[in-house]
Queue: 3 jobs
Job 1
Amino acid sequence: MNEHRRPLMDRTLPLLTGGYAWLPDRMRESSDRVVRTRLLGRPALAVRGPQAVRFFYDEAHVRRHGAIPGPVLDTLFGQGAVHTLDARAHRTRKELFLPLLAPARVAGLTEQVTAAWDDAVRTWGERERVVLFDEAGVVLTRGVCRWAGLPAGTGTQPLARDLVAMVDGFATPGPRHFRARRARHRQEARLARLVQDVRSGTVTAPADSVLDRVSRHRDTRDEPLDPRTAAVELLNVLRPTAAVSWFVAFAAHALHRWPAHRERLRAGDGAFATAFAHEVRRFYPFAPFLGGRTVRDLTWHGESVPAGGLLLLDVYGQNHDEELWGDPYAFRPQRFLDRPPGPDELIPQGGGDPRTGHRCPGEPITIGLLESLATRLARLDYQVPDQDLTIPLRRVPTRPRSGFAITGVRAP
């Protein structure tokens, strides 16, 4: 019997155990970079490449409503989040986030985070050991809360722990997942009360701040978001910013493994800082793939998936595709000095147009923060003690096992 005519076995369990390597391993068995499989009981088609990115983000092919599994909504995105909407409803909700793309806004957040970083660094020299992953989460949370207009006195460390837990537990069963659920429930309830206080006038949100915009936003029926959904979308600004702690730990890992890059960052080479940020996001694993529900029967390179099935975009595989990157497992920021990445080539935070589609609108924020914090890391004097710096590909999302600990910190 022809291979693609065989009944498809459900591969959800192999995915959970295989992690980042599961889909790329299957792709290597295909000459056309397309894989038919079954996940969560549904037929699925996995694709890769710039043309596949455009195919995946075509709203005539894929919808997000009903595509994101409940466990991911209950941890990472939140029920009713912008990620679950399509067409006009998606575009209307996304208007809440698009002003955050303005260069002045990105610069404002970067200033708040770097100020929080500089304050934190002054205390690190007094400590025997600093775990960069943990400290970055607190610094990023403190900075984004100030920038978003949250009231002073917001408990930064508990909030940072919860934001990091939401990301850390979205793709795994077991204790990490249940910690993520509890964290989301706790913060949604707290921020929903804050939104209600803003609307009642008990709390004043700075004009046009994120808190102000979320509290005032109206959806397609010209009604304000219910407080819980408003809290979900407020978390969808705070949580991705805290998630940059993964990239900070990866940047430290890269500077440790390839210290020659440190000098150009120290010198303030802005173009190199941008290239370094792109290469960290390309080289190190974060999202393994993205998925959507098929609107109609689809065919890609001779393989098909019926309406109501799943279309998967192989993010990790594309970011390590030899045809796109030449030597994909070499960490080489210079590749992005030669030319900027095409919008459908480098996709660690999705592809397509962030203004109209589902590409993460916070991508410029991630890049701006990573440029600044990687430069500060390069200028920081510290030692790297013996520790487990392996990055397990079976763990999603992964990071250096030790969180990247440093000692003997001396601020510049």
Job 2
Amino acid sequence: MLTQESIQAFVADWYHKLDVHVPMVEVLPLLADAELECVFPEVTVYGYAGFEGWYQRVIRTFFDEVHTVTKAEADIQGDTATVSVVVQWEASVWTAPEASSKRINADAYQTWTLKAGPAGTPILTKYVVDDFVPREGSATL
């Protein structure tokens, strides 16, 4: 059964895993393969395979990532929840042959759909980046 507490823990765990670039095998239990749809600013992906392609590109592009959740409000309806998430994302990126890396700092406004997984813990079925707003002084993507 989904609860506000289990959803808050899921959100914190999700961003921790992204920050430290865990192996994909540690991300899979958080995702619903057959139903998964992720709408990122640059691409929409489906299922484990689509997500893994996106994830592998991201962990090879960005480093020193820090995700700070400023909002995670869930509307729970039985075994599903719609979650409004706002996260401040900071990351460094280096593009060869530039002499130094650049720092990105932006707010991402997102809508997630979670369902109760087999163990009753949340799993992600839909992840949509609704808006991506660079903060003042941020490098561009």
Job 3
Amino acid sequence: MELTPMIDKSSFEPIYLQIYNYIQEEIIAGRIEADSKLPSIRRLAQYLNISRTPVALAYDQLLAEGYIKSKPRSGYFAENVESIARSNYNLKQNKVSPTGNYSPIHHFYHSYQNDAIKYDFGYGTIDLHHFPLAKWRKFMNRSLLPENSFHLLYGDIQGEIGLRKEIASYLHQNRGVRCSPDQIVIGAGTFHSLDLLFQLIQNRTTSIAVESSVHVGVKALLNKFPFQVEPLDLELDGINLNKLKKKEVQAIYLTPSYQFPYGMTLSINKRIKLLKYATENQFYIIENDYDGEFRYNNRPIPSLQSLDNNGRVIYLGTFSKSLTPSFRISYLVLPTDLLCLFHLGKHSYDQHASPIFQKTLQWFMESGDFERHMRKMRTLYQKKHAIITSRFSDIFEDKIEIVGAGAGLHIVIKVKNDMDELKLIDTAKQFGVNVYPTSIYKIENHQEQDNILLLGFGGLSETAIEEGLRLLKIAWFPNNP
């Protein structure tokens, strides 16, 4: 059997979901009959001229929801749709809302509680055991007192002024960012803030340069806007500036403190050259200071914004790793011209960050508890980083190369065996360990997979890190115990 779904690489909808929607509809409509054998992941990927990762994710989703079944050493087969509750099926045109608790998108971050996974190296996890719940609850309760009931309303569209003052002070002390509270716009997460920013610059930006690998959420947002996306090759010290100079762009998006996902840091020499080039050519630098607050082996490198004297840098940050992602609080630091556009209403933005959480965070920062928490977490994560990097060397010796480390809450490894990315992930999962791909972050989807994986360590205990690595050794190198 051959399958011919319509793949639109410019669509906001991820490729794996386009494949999933197509096969699901064909099975339910009876055009793929029960017990029909589907093409293998490799064969379908080759036929569609795409990488195997989106095909594998589509099959995983169909398998989890019961539309297909897997037979060992035989392949994938269509299930009898009569055994599927049609009432749970909610297909609308070419959109789908997956039923149940399984969603491959979240599997790019971490596993679910009901997954049969013992050790999850998800990069979206943090150490919840050390979160100061009692102190946070105290300030949360304060925000719910009758005299503070106005926090139950919508709040300031730019964000609560008290929190903006605290953020401005924190950024100056810890990242060297120079800004006033009036330049800060609070958002409900990185992608909410980026969406606002892209709205503000879209009328003056036709082409935007980005690192050759970026977060899938960033890729999806870029596809929403009429930007010509120009990928930039990555080197050991960040983006290839020579390639940038050959492109006519009005903006560049990058993660200079700890490139996501590969982990390199933009060198100070390149930072200075980039700022000079941006000033000369009058384009914006969008600095996502991803994991900039967690560096372990070297002195902190100043943020790009702290070196900017000409209003070319737009600074973006979040509290997802320093506190918890569930609070959904991010922030933009806008140059004066873009701040004017914001106040003129050149956007469809609304404030989605809870005023209650904003006020609670303000008091948490004013009390000094936030800074104490950050010092504690830096020490804790530094210890975990040292453990995972040293144990990799001890357990795997020269069979695995660490290609990205030194900051943040994840590392990147290159596995030296005959397995590709997909096989490495599937084999690890059979032993109860979740590891994560890097190929899904490539701007150019047709690029081949490799054997480079992403492993987060923030949410694992020291013991779990070591036990998880030992299981990976058994899974990936069964003949070398």
